[in-house]
Amino acid sequence: MLTRTVYSVIVLFLFLVTLSAATDPFLGKWKLNQSKSKMTGEQVKIEDLGGNKFTIAIGDISDTLVADGTDQPVHFGRTESITQDGPNTWKVVLKQDGRALFSMTWTLLPEGKTMNIATTGTRPDGSTFSEHVATRRIAGASGFAGTWESTSVKIGSPEEFDIQPYESDGLSFVVPAESDTLRMKFDGKDYSETGPNVAPGSASSGRRVNEHTLEVTDKVQGDVIDTTQFKVSADGKTLTLTVHEKGQSKPLTFVYERE
Predict the structure, then answer these.
(1) pLDDT tens-digit readout, 30-46
(2) What secondary structure letter does DSSP report for 75?
(3) Where do the domains of the chain lie, and which CATH numbers do they carry?
């Protein structure tokens, strides 16, 4: 009798877990829709310290580098180099463990009010990616020094990711091209993110606001980087991520469609 009761409880538990997984609106494969997203408004602040040295700040993340083409330590245990290719062009390379994560070309237009940033790189799965960002000057008079705000963002190959069940009440966020995985429960505890390009010490915590809404906080080595709201539409066809980066005044909005 006891054995049958225990067996019945286990069967009921597994049924409830399966039912919960099947009805969770977040589960599935999602692909970014650029035309519906609002990825502009992020600011970059560049301060000229003299002697070919600059401080570059994006939100609360700030690094000081000499633009001499050498690899120099920056945030998250990575290195970065800046090579000046004429008065109006910077070549920037970000590396982790000696591997290039991506390369950027920063181009200041002759009128001095617009700067374009072109990014290229190779993902862990061997596929390539590109991004083009146009920015406008909102502070500063000339040169790269000043405050720049993005006005246009175009991604060459839109991101795709997969949300899967994790244990009884969690979710697993997987970006196959990046070999990036975050498995987490929504109990307020930190869960580590893994992947070859993930910054050491990356972790996230989260909570379920309601059936269609999650709130996730991302950290690196204990410092909060951003807070993101995940919201699935009532028809279950779109997933909207509203990202509040620490130190940025405007949120970024990414709209994904179910594949």
Answers:
(1) 999 999 999 999 999 99
(2) G
(3) 24-38+158-258 (2.40.128.20), 43-155 (2.40.128)
d(CA 50, CA 191): 42
Angle at 212 between CA 163 and CA 204, to 5 degrees: 55
**8-state DSSP, 60:** T
pTM exceeding the 0.85 threshold for the entire prediction:
yes
- Closest by alpha carbon to 57, among 136, 152, 154, 148? 148
Task: Give the whole-angstrom CA distance, residue 188 versus residue 232.
Answer: 21
| Sheet containing 43-50, strands listed edge to edge, beginning at the edge strand earlier in sequence | 61-66, 53-58, 43-50, 146-155, 128-139, 114-122, 99-108, 89-96, 79-84, 72-73
**What are the backbone dihedrals phi and psi of residue 237, each rounded to the nearest 5 degrees, phi first?**
-95, -20
